[in-house]
Amino acid sequence: MSEFLERIDVVDIDTLHRDYDVDKVIDYVHEGIEAPTGSYPLDLYRKYEAQRWNISDLSFEEDKKDWTDKMTPLQRDTFLRVATGFHHGERQVAVDIMPLIIAAPKDEHKVYMTSQMEDEARHTIFFDRFYREVVGFEATDLMDTLDQSYQYMTETFIGAFGYLAYISDQLRQRPHDKRLLVSAITNYHMWIEGVLALSVMKITLGFCKRNQILPGFHKGFLATTRDESRHVVFGMHLLQELLADDPSLKTAVYDTVVTMLIMGSTYTQPVDYTPLGVERDSVRDILITNLRKKLGMVGLPIPPELERMMQGVQPENAAGG
């Protein structure tokens, strides 16, 4: 890993916001992946301790002005369509992660994943503040904010997160089933966090950086991206570990990816990304590149049929992650 990327490990979120863009933080996810060692969960836990940030330290005063004065109605609408899936997703993964913690093979895995649960809860509060203080929702509680933002949801959310709810419940009932665990990690860490979430981050944070707007959102969401990098690296390491113990579990990874691609190949609500400065084909390329890199991180080749399915993924998926 380069010295520039190594600094992402240690800088505070003010420096992260000022000196780094989302592409560098996404590179941080993909650089330096190595064969898992017994210490990697606790190494990542120590990173969590060093990188943890407080939502109460963020100010959205400038964001509120930018939202009204510097963004067009189309930009605001598209931004919400892209960001809302992440908002709902953070709440969803926060409540669905517990069966994965229980099913994790080692105590070190469980300890690390408790930090991930806290991250997801913090990210949920981050989005709640953004919708209340910047977008202008008058909500009575977290669920009221989620209910009000639901109008911006696309159906791509239903597939990936509906599957997560299903597979988490199955894992709750059969916590020693390694095939279920591999499927859950593939769905959660590889697809939702490693493909959908990173794609949403690249689109929204790139828009903020290029236009020098929404500084509070950019600071908090870039810090969220760094948090997500720990989650993805943990998940890919754990998949490596599980597949090394039982290579037959590779089929569970492929089967889950195929299921996600089938769900991601259709849509009824088109999303126009051009107000945020991104073309549809670019969004598709972002999604495919992120999936290709995650499969590479766990050492799995891409069979021709899977490659064809990947080419059919729709850009609307980036509005559901």
Structure description:
The chain is an all-alpha fold and 321 residues long. It has one domain: Ribonucleotide Reductase, subunit A, CATH 1.10.620. It contains 15 helices and no strands. The protein has helices spanning 3-6, 13-19, 22-30, 40-51, 61-69, 73-96, 98-103, 107-135, 142-149, 156-173, 178-211, 215-245, 250-263, 280-297, 304-311. Helix 2 packs across helix 12 (215-245), helix 8 runs antiparallel to helix 12 and helix 11 packs across helix 13. The protein is globular. It starts with a helix and ends in a 10-residue tail after the last helix. 49% of the residues are buried. The mean pLDDT is 91.
The number of domains = 1
Under the CATH scheme, which architecture would be assigned? Orthogonal Bundle
User: What proportion strand?
Assistant: under 5%
State the distance separating the first and last CA atoms: 28 Å
> What is the C-level CATH assignment?
Mainly Alpha
